[in-house]
Known about the structure:
Blueprint: E1 11-12, H1 13-23, E2 30-31, H2 40-44, H3 47-57, H4 65-76, H5 87-99, H6 134-137
Parallel strand pairs: 1-2
Helix pairs in contact: 4-5
Amino acid sequence: MSKAGQTPGFVPTTVLGPQKIAELPYRFPLCQGGCTRYSPSQRLAQPVNLTVVRQLLQAQPTPTRTQLARELCRRLELRDAKGDWQVATTAHALRDLAAQGHWTLPAPRVQRTGTYSTPPKRLPSGPPERPTSNSATKR
Length: 139
């Protein structure tokens, strides 16, 4: 990543000051003036980052999809506004770019079918009935 103050993000450097920036536990995304923040899919689509993903996919043993997404978040500093890693968004971007033909991802370890073993119970249609109680009607 680039030096502090040059990375697109949410916090202007004038708010924190150079002393506070050095005390941050990680490189918080900073910007000067009007900056734009790129999404993980936009970041991964950059030619340099496409090469990084291809190199990670050639590693032995091949990382799982989640391991790959976590490693990319770490290397590219993909964090949300709270500072959490954007693993799910990065994994989604990896799947989208794989669908575009940039690479082939390893098979998912867990196959999600999206079906229930038993169908969900439906609620009765119409408004719910009001309970009737003798004590509620007395005043």
